[in-house]
Amino acid sequence: xKKIALLIFCGMLGMTHAYSQxxxxxxxxxxxxDYRPQTSWPYLYADxxxxxxxxxxxxxxxxxxxxxxxxxxHLRGSLLHxxxxxxxxxxxxxxxPSQYVMLAGRKYVVRDGKVMELLSRQGNTELLLQTxxxxxxxxxxxxxxxxxxxxxxxNEGLYNSELSGLDRPSYEVLCQRRSDGREILMRxxxxxxxxxxxxxxxxxxxxxxxxxxxxxxxxxxxxxxxxFRQFCKANSINFRNGQxxxxxxxxxxxxxxx
Length: 258
Description:
Layout lengths: L1 H23 L24 E3 L1 E4 L5 E3 L4 E6 L4 E5 L6 E3 L6 E5 L2 E6 L2 E9 L2 E9 L1 H8 L28 H6 L9 E9 L3 H5 L4 E4 L2 H5 L4 H13 L7 H13 L4
Antiparallel strand pairs: 1-4, 2-3, 2-7, 4-5, 5-6, 7-8, 8-9, 9-10, 10-11, 11-12
C-alpha cells in the first residue's frame, strides 16, 4: 500500500509540473516560477532588484548614468519604478527610449511608453515582449478598486498604489502588504518596433506594432513574402506562441529585413 501511495503521489507531482508548464505556454519573465503578483504587489518581480540605468546609443557605446538603485516593473501601465534611498519611497523612473536597464539578466527598454523586454535587435528592427496583467478579468471581480491611493477598498480590503506611481508609496509598507491582495494573472504580448534607424527608435519615433504574420511580412521585400509563408506553414508557426514568434523573427533576420 505504501508503494502504491508513493506512486500515486509521484504521479500527482508529475501532473502538477506538466500543468504548470502548459499553463504558462510561453517563456515567462517572472523571477520565480512560483511567484504570482498581487493587487497589493503589482510588480513583475517578487522583489525590487539592484540595477543601473544605462544609455544605449548604438549598442556598442554604453554610457553609465546615475547611481545604482532598487528597480522593478509595475505591471499596470508597464512602468519602471525604483526605491529612493533617501525617503524609502517608491518612485516612477524617468525612463527614456534611449536607455535600458538589466533586471534578472534581461534587458528592458521603453517603447511606446511601456517598459518591454528587448528579445532581439536586427539593424533598425526590434522584437519586444511586454508582460501585462489580465486586468479586465481582475476588475470583473473586484470592481474599480485598482488605482486608489494606499487605502483599503471597502469591499475587498485590497491595498493599491496609484497607477502612475506619483503617490510615492512607502517601500516598507508595500513589502508588509504584498500578500494582502488578489492574484494578478499575466499574459505575454509581443511587439515589433521599426524605424528608419536605431537612432530614430531611441528618439521615440519608431513604429510599434503587435506581432502578427502580417506585421512580420511588412518587414520583408515582396519577393520574400511567399517563402516566409511557406516557412510558417511548414513549421506550424502560431503567432500567439512566444517560441514560434522568436523562430519566425530569426527567419526574418536570416533572410534580410526590409
